[in-house]
Amino acid sequence: MNDLNELQLDALGEIFNIGVGRAASSLSLIVSDEVLLSAPRVQIVHREQAAEILGRSALIKFSTVSQMFSGPFSAEAMLVFPETNALEIVRLMVGPHMSVEELSEYEQEAMCEVGNIILNACMSALADLFHVSFDSTLPLHRFGDAGLLSLLDSSDEPLVLLLQVDMTISQQCIQGHILFLLSVPSMRNLTACLNAYLSEQGLA
Amino acid sequence: MDTPASPLLLIVDDSRMSRMLIRAIVTDQRPSWRLIEAASGDEAVALVEQETPDFVSMDVNMPGISGLEAAGRIRIKHPQTRIVMCTANIQESTREAAAKVGLHFVAKPITPASIADAIAYFER
To answer: What topology does CATH give the domain B8-122?
Structure first.
Protein backbone atom coordinates (compact mmCIF):
# COMPACT_ATOMS: atom_id res chain seq x y z
CA MET A 1 0.00 0.00 0.00
CA ASN A 2 3.06 2.17 0.39
CA ASP A 3 2.95 2.88 -3.32
CA LEU A 4 2.57 6.61 -3.80
CA ASN A 5 4.77 7.65 -6.67
CA GLU A 6 7.41 10.37 -6.48
CA LEU A 7 5.09 13.14 -7.72
CA GLN A 8 2.27 12.13 -5.34
CA LEU A 9 4.66 12.15 -2.36
CA ASP A 10 6.11 15.47 -3.51
CA ALA A 11 2.60 16.95 -3.83
CA LEU A 12 1.64 15.70 -0.36
CA GLY A 13 4.82 17.23 1.08
CA GLU A 14 4.10 20.55 -0.60
CA ILE A 15 0.48 20.61 0.60
CA PHE A 16 1.65 19.92 4.16
CA ASN A 17 4.32 22.58 3.67
CA ILE A 18 1.53 25.11 3.09
CA GLY A 19 -0.29 23.82 6.19
CA VAL A 20 2.79 23.95 8.39
CA GLY A 21 3.54 27.45 7.04
CA ARG A 22 0.08 28.58 8.16
CA ALA A 23 0.60 26.90 11.52
CA ALA A 24 3.97 28.56 12.03
CA SER A 25 2.41 31.93 11.32
CA SER A 26 -0.20 31.38 14.06
CA LEU A 27 2.33 29.85 16.45
CA SER A 28 4.74 32.76 16.01
CA LEU A 29 1.96 35.14 17.07
CA ILE A 30 1.26 33.03 20.16
CA VAL A 31 4.87 32.73 21.31
CA SER A 32 5.74 36.26 20.08
CA ASP A 33 8.74 34.95 18.24
CA GLU A 34 9.87 33.73 14.87
CA VAL A 35 9.31 30.03 14.12
CA LEU A 36 11.88 28.57 11.74
CA LEU A 37 10.78 25.54 9.74
CA SER A 38 12.61 22.90 7.78
CA ALA A 39 11.19 21.50 4.56
CA PRO A 40 8.78 18.72 5.60
CA ARG A 41 9.79 15.11 5.01
CA VAL A 42 6.88 12.82 4.14
CA GLN A 43 6.98 9.03 4.45
CA ILE A 44 4.28 6.38 4.44
CA VAL A 45 5.29 3.52 6.71
CA HIS A 46 3.79 0.76 8.83
CA ARG A 47 3.18 1.85 12.40
CA GLU A 48 5.98 -0.32 13.81
CA GLN A 49 8.41 1.46 11.49
CA ALA A 50 7.05 4.87 12.56
CA ALA A 51 7.70 4.05 16.21
CA GLU A 52 11.19 2.92 15.22
CA ILE A 53 11.89 6.15 13.26
CA LEU A 54 10.72 8.31 16.16
CA GLY A 55 12.69 6.15 18.58
CA ARG A 56 15.85 6.81 16.55
CA SER A 57 15.42 10.58 16.89
CA ALA A 58 16.85 12.40 19.87
CA LEU A 59 13.52 12.23 21.66
CA ILE A 60 13.28 10.15 24.81
CA LYS A 61 9.98 11.25 26.33
CA PHE A 62 7.19 12.67 24.25
CA SER A 63 4.40 15.13 24.77
CA THR A 64 1.69 14.31 22.23
CA VAL A 65 -1.52 16.00 21.14
CA SER A 66 -3.91 14.01 18.98
CA GLN A 67 -7.15 14.70 17.15
CA MET A 68 -9.40 12.52 14.99
CA PHE A 69 -10.34 14.00 11.63
CA SER A 70 -13.13 12.53 9.53
CA GLY A 71 -14.22 13.42 6.01
CA PRO A 72 -13.47 11.88 2.60
CA PHE A 73 -10.79 10.03 4.51
CA SER A 74 -10.30 9.65 8.24
CA ALA A 75 -7.07 10.04 10.12
CA GLU A 76 -5.79 10.35 13.63
CA ALA A 77 -3.46 13.33 13.50
CA MET A 78 -0.81 13.56 16.16
CA LEU A 79 1.70 16.25 17.06
CA VAL A 80 4.76 14.93 18.90
CA PHE A 81 7.22 17.10 20.82
CA PRO A 82 10.00 16.12 23.21
CA GLU A 83 8.53 16.37 26.70
CA THR A 84 11.20 18.85 27.81
CA ASN A 85 10.27 21.24 24.99
CA ALA A 86 6.59 21.22 25.85
CA LEU A 87 7.09 23.20 29.06
CA GLU A 88 9.31 25.68 27.20
CA ILE A 89 6.60 26.22 24.58
CA VAL A 90 4.10 26.90 27.37
CA ARG A 91 6.54 29.34 28.98
CA LEU A 92 6.85 31.20 25.67
CA MET A 93 3.06 31.26 25.35
CA VAL A 94 2.26 32.67 28.78
CA GLY A 95 5.32 34.87 29.30
CA PRO A 96 7.88 35.00 32.10
CA HIS A 97 5.51 35.77 34.96
CA MET A 98 4.57 32.24 36.02
CA SER A 99 6.35 29.83 38.34
CA VAL A 100 7.30 26.34 37.11
CA GLU A 101 4.46 24.88 39.22
CA GLU A 102 1.92 27.21 37.64
CA LEU A 103 3.32 26.47 34.19
CA SER A 104 2.92 22.72 34.75
CA GLU A 105 -0.73 23.31 35.58
CA TYR A 106 -1.31 25.01 32.23
CA GLU A 107 0.85 22.59 30.26
CA GLN A 108 -1.88 20.18 29.13
CA GLU A 109 -4.24 22.98 28.16
CA ALA A 110 -1.54 24.96 26.35
CA MET A 111 -0.23 21.93 24.46
CA CYS A 112 -3.79 21.13 23.35
CA GLU A 113 -4.02 24.65 21.96
CA VAL A 114 -0.67 24.34 20.13
CA GLY A 115 -1.72 20.95 18.75
CA ASN A 116 -5.09 22.30 17.73
CA ILE A 117 -3.47 25.13 15.76
CA ILE A 118 -0.84 23.02 14.04
CA LEU A 119 -2.97 19.98 13.24
CA ASN A 120 -5.91 22.06 12.01
CA ALA A 121 -3.61 24.19 9.86
CA CYS A 122 -2.29 21.05 8.16
CA MET A 123 -5.77 19.59 7.68
CA SER A 124 -7.17 22.93 6.47
CA ALA A 125 -4.49 23.06 3.77
CA LEU A 126 -5.56 19.57 2.66
CA ALA A 127 -9.25 20.53 2.82
CA ASP A 128 -8.81 23.80 0.89
CA LEU A 129 -6.68 22.34 -1.88
CA PHE A 130 -8.75 19.15 -2.21
CA HIS A 131 -12.07 21.13 -1.98
CA VAL A 132 -13.35 18.90 0.86
CA SER A 133 -14.13 19.36 4.55
CA PHE A 134 -13.27 17.51 7.73
CA ASP A 135 -14.87 17.24 11.15
CA SER A 136 -12.55 16.93 14.10
CA THR A 137 -12.68 15.85 17.73
CA LEU A 138 -11.23 17.95 20.54
CA PRO A 139 -7.47 17.70 20.99
CA LEU A 140 -6.21 15.21 23.54
CA HIS A 141 -2.87 15.64 25.31
CA ARG A 142 -0.79 12.68 26.51
CA PHE A 143 2.74 11.79 27.48
CA GLY A 144 4.53 8.80 25.95
CA ASP A 145 7.81 6.91 25.81
CA ALA A 146 10.09 6.69 22.79
CA GLY A 147 10.39 2.92 23.09
CA LEU A 148 6.68 2.31 23.22
CA LEU A 149 4.84 5.21 21.67
CA SER A 150 1.82 3.52 23.13
CA LEU A 151 -0.58 5.37 20.88
CA LEU A 152 1.03 3.84 17.82
CA ASP A 153 1.16 0.39 19.37
CA SER A 154 -2.47 0.42 20.39
CA SER A 155 -3.77 1.85 17.13
CA ASP A 156 -5.71 -0.39 14.77
CA GLU A 157 -4.55 1.64 11.80
CA PRO A 158 -1.76 -0.18 9.99
CA LEU A 159 -0.34 2.78 8.08
CA VAL A 160 1.22 5.98 9.29
CA LEU A 161 1.78 9.03 7.17
CA LEU A 162 4.83 10.42 8.91
CA LEU A 163 5.51 14.11 8.43
CA GLN A 164 8.70 15.32 10.03
CA VAL A 165 9.29 19.03 10.44
CA ASP A 166 12.00 20.70 12.48
CA MET A 167 10.70 23.78 14.24
CA THR A 168 13.01 26.23 15.94
CA ILE A 169 11.44 28.67 18.34
CA SER A 170 13.45 31.36 20.08
CA GLN A 171 16.82 29.70 19.58
CA GLN A 172 15.48 26.52 21.20
CA CYS A 173 15.80 23.69 18.73
CA ILE A 174 12.36 22.17 19.10
CA GLN A 175 11.92 19.22 16.79
CA GLY A 176 8.27 18.47 16.23
CA HIS A 177 6.81 15.53 14.36
CA ILE A 178 3.36 15.34 12.86
CA LEU A 179 1.88 11.90 12.32
CA PHE A 180 -1.25 10.86 10.48
CA LEU A 181 -2.54 7.38 11.21
CA LEU A 182 -4.62 6.09 8.32
CA SER A 183 -6.43 2.87 7.57
CA VAL A 184 -5.96 1.18 4.20
CA PRO A 185 -9.36 2.44 2.84
CA SER A 186 -8.52 5.96 4.07
CA MET A 187 -5.14 5.81 2.37
CA ARG A 188 -6.90 4.78 -0.83
CA ASN A 189 -9.27 7.77 -0.51
CA LEU A 190 -6.40 10.14 0.24
CA THR A 191 -4.64 8.91 -2.91
CA ALA A 192 -7.85 9.53 -4.91
CA CYS A 193 -8.03 13.12 -3.56
CA LEU A 194 -4.37 13.61 -4.41
CA ASN A 195 -4.86 12.33 -7.97
CA ALA A 196 -7.89 14.60 -8.45
CA TYR A 197 -5.83 17.57 -7.22
CA LEU A 198 -2.90 16.79 -9.54
CA SER A 199 -5.26 16.29 -12.44
CA GLU A 200 -7.02 19.62 -11.69
CA GLN A 201 -3.60 21.30 -11.79
CA GLY A 202 -2.90 19.64 -15.14
CA LEU A 203 -0.06 17.63 -13.64
CA ALA A 204 -1.44 14.09 -13.95
CA MET B 1 19.20 44.99 -35.54
CA ASP B 2 19.34 42.59 -32.60
CA THR B 3 16.04 41.59 -31.05
CA PRO B 4 16.22 41.59 -27.25
CA ALA B 5 16.25 38.06 -25.78
CA SER B 6 13.09 36.90 -24.02
CA PRO B 7 13.19 37.39 -20.26
CA LEU B 8 14.75 34.52 -18.33
CA LEU B 9 12.97 33.32 -15.17
CA LEU B 10 14.72 31.04 -12.68
CA ILE B 11 12.28 28.90 -10.64
CA VAL B 12 13.76 27.71 -7.33
CA ASP B 13 11.78 25.20 -5.27
CA ASP B 14 12.60 21.84 -3.70
CA SER B 15 9.12 20.60 -4.63
CA ARG B 16 8.94 19.24 -8.17
CA MET B 17 5.18 19.80 -8.16
CA SER B 18 5.63 23.49 -7.32
CA ARG B 19 8.21 23.94 -10.07
CA MET B 20 5.88 22.22 -12.55
CA LEU B 21 2.95 24.41 -11.47
CA ILE B 22 4.90 27.67 -11.71
CA ARG B 23 6.27 26.61 -15.10
CA ALA B 24 2.78 25.74 -16.41
CA ILE B 25 1.15 28.97 -15.23
CA VAL B 26 4.00 31.25 -16.36
CA THR B 27 4.07 29.52 -19.76
CA ASP B 28 0.34 30.18 -19.99
CA GLN B 29 0.62 33.85 -19.00
CA ARG B 30 3.97 34.67 -20.67
CA PRO B 31 4.60 32.08 -23.42
CA SER B 32 7.73 33.83 -24.68
CA TRP B 33 9.63 33.71 -21.36
CA ARG B 34 12.52 31.31 -21.02
CA LEU B 35 12.45 29.19 -17.88
CA ILE B 36 15.15 27.38 -15.93
CA GLU B 37 14.82 25.50 -12.63
CA ALA B 38 16.81 24.77 -9.50
CA ALA B 39 15.80 22.40 -6.68
CA SER B 40 17.80 24.15 -3.93
CA GLY B 41 19.26 27.51 -2.96
CA ASP B 42 22.79 26.25 -3.59
CA GLU B 43 21.87 25.05 -7.08
CA ALA B 44 20.22 28.42 -7.80
CA VAL B 45 23.32 30.38 -6.78
CA ALA B 46 25.47 28.17 -9.02
CA LEU B 47 23.05 28.46 -11.98
CA VAL B 48 22.98 32.25 -11.76
CA GLU B 49 26.74 32.30 -12.33
CA GLN B 50 26.24 30.56 -15.69
CA GLU B 51 23.46 32.84 -16.94
CA THR B 52 22.01 35.78 -15.03
CA PRO B 53 18.21 35.54 -14.92
CA ASP B 54 16.04 38.62 -15.22
CA PHE B 55 13.65 37.24 -12.64
CA VAL B 56 13.75 34.65 -9.85
CA SER B 57 10.88 32.86 -8.08
CA MET B 58 12.38 31.58 -4.82
CA ASP B 59 10.98 29.24 -2.16
CA VAL B 60 12.12 29.84 1.45
CA ASN B 61 12.20 26.50 3.31
CA MET B 62 14.48 24.19 1.37
CA PRO B 63 17.20 21.71 2.24
CA GLY B 64 20.64 23.40 2.34
CA ILE B 65 20.82 27.20 2.40
CA SER B 66 17.47 28.95 2.83
CA GLY B 67 15.77 30.79 0.00
CA LEU B 68 16.33 34.07 1.83
CA GLU B 69 20.07 33.45 1.98
CA ALA B 70 20.23 32.35 -1.66
CA ALA B 71 18.25 35.45 -2.70
CA GLY B 72 20.63 37.65 -0.69
CA ARG B 73 23.67 36.10 -2.42
CA ILE B 74 22.09 36.60 -5.86
CA ARG B 75 21.15 40.19 -5.03
CA ILE B 76 24.70 41.11 -4.01
CA LYS B 77 26.15 40.02 -7.36
CA HIS B 78 23.17 40.82 -9.57
CA PRO B 79 21.23 43.75 -8.07
CA GLN B 80 19.23 44.19 -11.29
CA THR B 81 17.62 40.72 -10.94
CA ARG B 82 14.09 40.92 -9.57
CA ILE B 83 13.32 38.26 -6.98
CA VAL B 84 9.97 37.08 -5.63
CA MET B 85 9.83 34.92 -2.50
CA CYS B 86 7.13 32.37 -3.31
CA THR B 87 6.60 30.55 -0.03
CA ALA B 88 4.22 28.87 2.38
CA ASN B 89 6.13 30.50 5.25
CA ILE B 90 3.69 33.38 5.72
CA GLN B 91 5.02 34.66 9.04
CA GLU B 92 5.38 38.40 9.47
CA SER B 93 9.10 37.92 10.18
CA THR B 94 9.60 36.26 6.78
CA ARG B 95 7.65 39.01 5.02
CA GLU B 96 9.73 41.63 6.85
CA ALA B 97 13.02 39.86 6.08
CA ALA B 98 12.04 39.75 2.41
CA ALA B 99 10.95 43.39 2.31
CA LYS B 100 14.12 44.55 4.09
CA VAL B 101 16.30 43.34 1.21
CA GLY B 102 13.88 44.50 -1.50
CA LEU B 103 12.25 41.16 -2.33
CA HIS B 104 8.61 40.82 -3.24
CA PHE B 105 6.55 38.31 -1.24
CA VAL B 106 3.95 35.93 -2.70
CA ALA B 107 2.16 33.43 -0.46
CA LYS B 108 1.61 29.82 -1.56
CA PRO B 109 -0.47 27.99 -2.74
CA ILE B 110 0.62 28.65 -6.29
CA THR B 111 -2.36 29.83 -8.32
CA PRO B 112 -2.80 31.84 -11.53
CA ALA B 113 -3.55 34.86 -9.29
CA SER B 114 -0.38 34.49 -7.18
CA ILE B 115 1.75 34.05 -10.31
CA ALA B 116 0.06 37.08 -11.91
CA ASP B 117 1.09 39.04 -8.79
CA ALA B 118 4.70 37.88 -9.21
CA ILE B 119 4.69 38.72 -12.94
CA ALA B 120 3.27 42.19 -12.22
CA TYR B 121 6.20 42.77 -9.85
CA PHE B 122 8.73 41.45 -12.38
CA GLU B 123 7.37 43.75 -15.10
CA ARG B 124 6.92 46.81 -12.90
So the answer is: Rossmann fold (3.40.50)
